[in-house]
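Possible regression after last week's pipeline update?

I re-ran a chain I had predicted before the update to compare outputs. Posting the input and the new output here so someone can diff against the archived version. Not blocking, just want to make sure nothing changed silently.
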Amino acid sequence: MRFLIVRKADADSEAGAPVTQALVDAMADYCDPLAAEGRFHAGEGLKPSSEGVRVSFRAGRTPVVVDGPFAEARELVAGFSIIEAESMDAAVDWVKGWPVEDANGNAEIEIRPVGCPGGLTNFGDPAEDESDRPRYMVMLKANARSETDWNPGPEILGRMAEANRAGHEAGFLIAGNGLSSSRHARRVRFNKGQAQVFDGPFAEIKEMVAGFWVLRVDTLEDVIAWTRTYPFPDGDEARLEIRPLYSMKELLAPLA
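New output (post-update):
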């Protein structure tokens, strides 16, 4: 099974605080054994919400864009990984080993099973490659319907599959993943390195993520233009958050 490991934001990540060498080394030591087994599939950091936008739509799919930053720091996403684990319990056990060098031992991690409730195939790899083009993560915000593991049906899923295929073949849509509702999720909250586990569902529906795509395009405006035509399951009622991803060069620049 694949799981999305979401590192929740905090004041430091929202301020764009630079990474330390100790954190880089600790995360490498933590993730490398899983990667060596072929079970670590992604590890990406999101830039602060001050560099992102939220998008909703008027009739006719006219985007309404609200610039960040956003106030709900504890519910924002600061980074994510995709791992392979035998079960949710196994994924939780892995997360319990999260390095204390992150957030001074006070990180909060959410674990979500990867997979569209309607069976739409996940695709692609969000990781950086040789391209200099920026990458952007488009997060579809959850709602009461998605929290029931709603299946939008074959017509909508077919349109989404075709749009995913076309964007992927064109080279700009590099990854897409659906997520199960938060009732299948867990949160691990650390207090000075001590882990406490919470079972879903979670109350903050409007701030949770129901699925995401990663685009490699030149500008944020290019991403917004894409959202005008993509057949989201919620149609014109879709609510999105768009955030740029760090390149490794940007992330490690303070250590140079």
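Follow-up from reviewer: compared with the archived run. The helical segments are 11-14, 21-36, 88-95, 154-170, 220-227, 248-252. Marking as no regression found.
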